[in-house]
């Protein structure tokens, strides 16, 4: 792992909040979940595809396994409190959406955070075993940049290094 650490130690990539819901996702017969994710990237231009990697230890992974769609949110650099909520608390014992403004796309029950810098909803096209993480291949079906056309500074890995993960090890 030392060889990979030498490479990844110089990276400072965007952090995302990924949300999922199974069933109807409103608490009546469905579960909703969300977590902070650093392992994610666009992986195809044509057709457009995005891969997001969820930890097997994470509550969001258990919901995502039976979901049809995931919502991926880019956070602004001033949204560390949102990152802390989704990165340092576990959905096993916390309703992360209780005190946040969120809505649902008409395409799927996955929660969409109203205050994100940008978001997209992706249909899960497949999964890939990555060891302690599972990759979810997403085909975009909806998305928005609520803040307008300007590109705000995003929350990066270096902004959240002090957070303690909320899911069990």
From TrEMBL:
- Per the database record, which ranges form the Flavin reductase like domain? 11-163
Q: One Pfam family of this protein, by short name?
A: Flavin_Reduct
Tell me where on the tree of life, at the top rank, the source sits. Bacteria
Keyword presence, Cell inner membrane: no
List keywords of the entry alphabetically: Oxidoreductase
- In the UniProt record, does the keyword S-adenosyl-L-methionine occur? no
Q: Which protein is depicted?
A: Flavin reductase family protein
Q: Supply the InterPro entries for this chain.
A: Flavin_Rdtase-like_dom, NADH-dep_flavin_reductase, Split_barrel_FMN-bd
Source organism per entry reads Streptomyces yangpuensis
């Amino acid at each position: 792992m030392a060889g990979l650490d030498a490479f990844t130690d110089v990276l400072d990539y965007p952090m995302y909040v990924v949300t999922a819901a199974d069933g109807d996702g409103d608490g009546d017969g469905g579960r909703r979940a969300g977590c902070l994710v650093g392992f994610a990237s666009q992986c195809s231009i044509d057709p457009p595809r995005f891969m997001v990697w969820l930890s097997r230890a994470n509550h969001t992974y258990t919901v995502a396994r039976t979901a049809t769609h995931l919502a991926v949110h880019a956070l602004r650099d001033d949204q560390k409190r949102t990152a802390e909520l989704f990165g340092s608390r576990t959905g096993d014992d916390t309703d992360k959406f209780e005190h946040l403004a969120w809505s649902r796309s008409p395409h799927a029950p996955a929660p969409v955070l109203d205050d994100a810098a940008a978001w997209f909803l992706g249909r899960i096209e497949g999964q890939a075993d990555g060891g302690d993480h599972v990759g979810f291949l997403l085909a975009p079906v909806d998305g928005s940049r609520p803040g307008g056309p300007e590109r705000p500074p995003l929350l990066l890995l270096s902004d959240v290094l002090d957070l303690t993960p909320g899911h069990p090890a």
